[in-house]
Amino acid sequence: xxxxxANPICWSNDDMVEIGGDxxxxxxxxxxxxxxxxxxxxxxxxxxxxxxxxxxxAEYGLVFVSGWYSTFLLERDGDAEFAAGLDELKxxxxxxxxxxxxxxxxxxxxxxxxxxxxxxxxxxxxxxxTFLPRMxxxxxxxxxxxxxxxxxxxxxxxxxxxxxxxxxxxxxxxAVKLLLxxxxxxxxxxxxxxxxxxYAGRIGHVHAKDVRRxxxxxxxxxxxxxxxxxxxxxxxxxxxxxxxFASVFKALPDYSxxxxxxxxxxxxxxxxxxxxxxxxxxxxxxxAEAGLA
Length: 293
What we know:
By secondary structure, the protein is α/β, with parallel strands linked by helices. It has one domain (2-289): Divalent-metal-dependent TIM barrel enzymes (TIM Barrel), CATH 3.20.20. It contains twelve helices and eleven strands. The strands form two sheets. The protein has a nine-stranded parallel β-sheet with strand order 3-2-1-11-8-7-6-5-4. The chain has a two-stranded antiparallel sheet with strand order 9-10. Strand 1 (2-6), helix 1 and strand 2 form a beta-alpha-beta unit. It is globular, with a radius of gyration of 18 Å. Residues 30-270 form the Xylose isomerase-like TIM barrel domain.
């Protein structure tokens, strides 16, 4: 079964809290409900305890989907990572999440507005040899705890390109699932359709965002930071950019889970309700074209 969710980053940014800072949580949740969204990922304005989080979402007929978790497995092993994150993992599990959106954030530049994407970290062979078994161990511990790790490849981090995703998938055990983010892999020069076909059996979560190809090309040519690129409109909702979503979903005939609209934009330029409404309608159409309900 496919369920369509949203990330509050469509309304208010987490890396630059001033972007959409004036938009209340209540506006975000009421608009998401009215659009037809079934569940929400976590944002900085959400309640900080599992009971309060579940209750707040329930006021709007929504459920909790998941929440981003930054790992630092190049700095500590899987057991230490799990111990360090236990409170955060418990909050997500107890609020109703089944997956843990995970991204290795050692030396990441995606949250630093002054750091060009060309300065992002790239792992050495020795670091890969350290990272991969630690990620597997962390995922196994999370699985036993009740959360399935879905790895979020992301611009500005150590797993950004298609080749890096391939290396991650080849070098980790079955407890590590993949979060397919259509926008990040496209901007990184990869092919989301090929990714979907290759990893269909390990994709446990989907972030649906589109890419404005002209903005992405300019961002690369002029070596912008991730956040400057977001503010310029590199991302948009499904159907408003260059990605062939119907083909992506056709490559996932057996997928069951969340498809989350996660298209960070400047709400001053892209009204969140109007854009998420458009993205939701487009997603429904693309899923229908692919034969997914």
